[in-house]
Prior knowledge:
The chain is of the alpha/beta class.
Amino acid sequence: MKRLSLLTLAFLTSFAISAQEIALQLYSLRNELKDDPGEYFEMIPTWGINALEGGGGYGYSDAEFAAMLDENNMRIIGVGADYNQLSKNLSPIIENAKKFGAKYATCYWIPHKEGPISEKDLKKATKLFNEAGAKLAEEGITLLYHPHGYEFAEYEGGFLMDYMFENAEHFAFNMDVYWVQQGGGDPLQYMKDYPGMFPLLHLKDREKGTEASDDGRADVETNVILGTGDVDIAGIIKEAKKQGTEYLIIEDESSRSVAQIPESVKFIQKHLK
C-alpha cells in the first residue's frame, strides 16, 4: 500500500462528512432511452434513485433536459471524459461537466490493442491522467478512472493495475467492481489497500460461474441483481460506508436491467442501514 497522497487525504477529509447515495449509470438504460426517454426518466425516481451518471441529452435541448431533470428531482453527478479528448483539449469535458453541475468526470476506456493492456500504454495513461487531473481540479472537477479488466496483466509480482494505484496523484477511481473481479483482481481488497481513492463506485454483480477474461470483454447477460452473484457486494458496501464513498452507482448492462435495478436498489438500501 502506498503512502497516502495529498489527493487521497483530501478525499478522506471530504468523505468524512458525506453519506452514501445510490445513483444510476444511464448506460444501464441505453436501449430503453432510445425509444421513450421521458417514460424512463419518470420511472427512475420511483426506484429510489435521484442521482445519475451520464451526460447526454437523449434528444432534448439543454433547456428541455434540465427542466426534465428538475421536474423529476434528478441531477447529473458525473460525466464521461474520453481518453482522446483528455489528451487533446480539456475544454469540452469541462464545459460538459459544468453544464450539468457535475463535479466528477470519468474515463472509461484506454485505447489499446485487443487483449490485456501493455505496460507502455498503461504507464502513458497514468501520466496523462495525472496531468489532466491536475488541470481539471483547478476547475472543481475530479478526474476518475474506471478499470475495465484489461489492466490485470502480471507486473512486478502483482498487476499492472497496481502501478496505476501506486502512481495516482491527481486522479482517483470510479471502480467497477465487476470488471476488477472479471480481470482477476479483488475489488474489496483494493478498497482496503487504497482508502479514500474511491469517491464513486460502480456496483455490478457477476453471475456465479462466469469465466474470467483479461480483455475488458464479457457477456452483458452475466450482470445479475446485486447480492446474487460472486462479487462481495455486501462487503464492498460496508467498506464504502467506512470510507465515505459518495455515490454507489448501479450499472446493469443486461437485457433485464429494468427489472433488476429496483431489486439491486433494495439490496444496497438494506446494507446501508
